[in-house]
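Write out this protein's structure.
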Amino acid sequence: MAKKGNRIQVILECTEHKDSGKPGTSRYITTKNKKNTPDRIVLKKYNPILKKMTEHKEIK
């Protein structure tokens, strides 16, 4: 039987969107290996509301 593993699902939320004052949020769901990356991750993703690439940080 296969092991469950260390991969967990995390939600990434845009950091610039709150400051813009526009309604809605930009969120992405991805997975990470909690053993290799115990810290919160930050990725550049596309925000369709702001229509540009922005930093998305992991939320809990």
